[in-house]
Amino acid sequence: MKNKQKRKTLSWVANIGMAIVCLIALFPVIMLLISSLRPSSELMRTGISLAFDWSTLNIDNYNYIFTQAAGYWTWYTNSLVISAVTIVLSLFFSAMVGYALAVYDFKGRNLFFTFVVFILMVPFEILMLPLFQMMITASLVDSYLGVILPMVVAPIAVFFFRQYALGLPVQLMDAARIDGATEYGIYFKIMLPLMGPSLGAMAILQGLGSWNNFLWPLIVLRSNDMFTLPIGLATLLTPYGNNYDVLIAGSVMTIVPIIILFIFFQRYFVAGLTTGGVKG
């Protein structure tokens, strides 16, 4: 009886502790949401804080975004297109490469995987100038492809899928070969569905990275109509005036696609990270 009461007490303490941690983690988001409802004059007077007149809260900033800020929705669409295409292509090619490195024994496999790990350790700032030169040569500057192509086969995604695929039952491959299945049929019909948790987890990580990517689109894109959301929001801050009210409201709207993506793949997220992280 004492042990049961002790476990119940510890459970309550753990729940209260996690609730406090969650509130601390959510506090910046709550402050961002409240600040998005404040007029520009209030933001300039008191900044992002709780010391303001609560009666001034309104949805004028969101009305402006939905009715007058035409450029904002162009940036939003650009980010959605780039992120969606990047997720699909990255999952398709990175999963295929990681799977091949895990289940096939071919000459140079370990060397190839060493290159993947090496590139993973190289900062992007070192690679961006050669990549930009490649985009110039291929005439892909100021285009969707110029932003997407360098991110299609991400080293972190290849490493992740390789680690996950090491735990796949290779006996299924042998049984499928006996039944006459091709290697592509084995991959797409049998092994890829088994990699569902890893695909869900990596979809969230790749989507988050692509959606928040600022440096590479800033280098490649030139025209205002091609800007992604992070670059477009940054243009609201100028030496001649700072539209903090619109900037904060626009930043709140950027959270929505990531929340939807996480809700859609949440059941795969934890399983994919834990399983893929311990295999091999």
What does this structure look like?
The chain has a two-stranded antiparallel sheet. The protein contains 14 helices and two strands. Helices cover 75% and strands 1% of the residues. It is globular. Helix 4 (70-103) runs antiparallel to helix 11, helix 5 packs across helix 8 and helix 9 (170-178) runs antiparallel to helix 10. With 280 residues, it is an all-alpha fold.
Strand residues, percent: under 5%
Which class do the helix and strand fractions yield? mainly alpha
Number of discrete helical segments: 14
Residues in helix, % = over 70%
- Backbone CA Rg: 24 Å
Strands across the major sheet, in which order? Answer: 1-2
Number of strands: 2
For the termini, the CA-CA separation is 43 Å
Described by the principal axes of the CA atoms, the overall outline is: globular
The low-confidence runs, each spanning 5 or more residues with pLDDT under 50, are 276-280
What composes the largest sheet?
A: 2 strands, antiparallel
The H/E string reads: HHHHHHHHHHHHHEEH
Mean of residue pLDDT values: 85
